[in-house]
Model the fold of this input.
Amino acid sequence: MTKRIFHSICFTATAVITASLVMTVLVLYSYFAEVHHDRLESQTKLTAHSLANEGMSFFDGLNAYDYRVTWIAADGCVIYDTSKDAATMENHADREEVAEAMENGYGESSRASSTLTERLIYSAQRLPDGTIVRLSCSQFTVFSLMPKMILPLVVIIVFTGGLSLFIAYRLSKKIVKPLNELDLDAPLHNTVYSEIMPLLERIDAQQNELKHHAETLRKKQNEFNTATENMNEGLIVLNNKGIILSINRKASELLSISSFGVGKNLLELNRSGDLRVIVETASGGELAETVMNIDGLDYHFSASPVFSDSEAAGVALLIFDITDKEKAEQMRREFTANVSHEIKTPLHAISGYAEIMQNGLVKPEDTGEFAGRIYSETQRMITLVDDIIKLSKLDEGANTLMFEEMKLLDTANSAVQRLEQPAAEMKINLSVGGDDVTVIAEPQLVSGIVYNLCDNAIKYNRENGSVSVLIKDCGDYAQISVSDTGIGIPPDKLDRIFERFYRVDKSRSKQVGGTGLGLSIVKHSAALLNAEIEVESVVKGGTTISVRLPKKQRQQVPA
Ligand code: ADP
Done:
């Protein structure tokens, strides 16, 4: 900008100086031409006067160096000429100045000379006798002045040019200095030139707009960060070169990438081959997924391409923990295998007994016993199928539960009543006692819990043993404890007895008609009721299983 101002000032100064010089020359020239002209006129008048008085003798001894004098008769014939022989000269009546003098008494004219630097000026005066005297002289043209004026002109141009350069340099610096010192962070605080105030106001408005945009962006970024930071899933956003644009806390932890990883290439920070494959596939515009095991947990990696104007502009990588899902899948597979196995055994037995009977290998008196075995195997299967159905209903979750007020003593009494026969067979004493507590719960689930616990307490008891159910009011919750005097459970097996199909002693369980699902049903039911289970057992001393049941269920019961 300084340069432009400097050039502009130089150009203006040069133009002004040149114009001034040209005008000065022209004014001077016209002044001197006028003086010259006036002198010629007065000289013509003097000559006319003398010639009128003296006649031809006027020319005697006349030294006409400066002027050429021509005396012309009234008809235009040249009488005398100081430069030429009058007899050889043509008639001058048609000369402009002569014709004008003849008519008006005085006339003048000018004509170009053979050279550019001179021109001839004429002045004619009519004498009283009608003759005309004409004076002429040469006058320099403006071009003739040039050689004489070159030196002073050069001096003037050099001086004024130098002065112009100096002034232009200083001026341009002075004009630009305040502009360079503008405080653009506070545009309206500058009071330099009023002409640039609209520009500063515009800058100020744009800065405010930018600040507003930046603030909005910052808020959105914060919202995004807050949302992603609290996610249980890992989230990484990459650009199309694999550079990390954003990574949340969970993803940083899983891939061991610190927050300084932003701006770096993901595949350089984590060299997993599977990760490379899915990121590169997604960069090519296709969804890619893989499962990776990190610290013993299974994680599903899903890399989706992010499109901008139908071109893959980046990749969004979502990482979620599927360990529970995998576990559930595994459990389902195991459960199916167990169910098949459990059903296969009685079916084989039934099929075997039936085949023996069909082949007539059973004596008529033994038919009843074989039919009894088939019946008991069938009963085992029915019990098993019933338990499986109960479990699958519990798997459906809390949506189907109907909570209502119920008295725990009544529930315990009715469960115990249903077990009186098997208890009597083993001469086991059954008792129910404790506080008369009312709770809000699902009656079928509570009844199922008490029934299963009492059933086990009888099955794994000894003859002449006892089973007691104790209900206790513990403030916010009620405790149902089922104690027996049975065989007890070894301490190292206590953790496993709630697993599906787990039995401490398989043959004993089968012998007493166990399915291996009773305590699974108890555990599942307790979970749906937000209840806690506690087991205390002494081998050969007896077992007490307690269930702590909240008196009022929370609004939402976890599935
Ligand atoms: P089951 O149908 O075999 O009884 P459960 O799931 O009810 O299956 O119980 C699992 C295992 O826990 C039983 O096989 C048994 O070994 C053990 N068990 C359960 N309750 C008792 C108890 N009161 N005393 C001793 N052992 C028990």
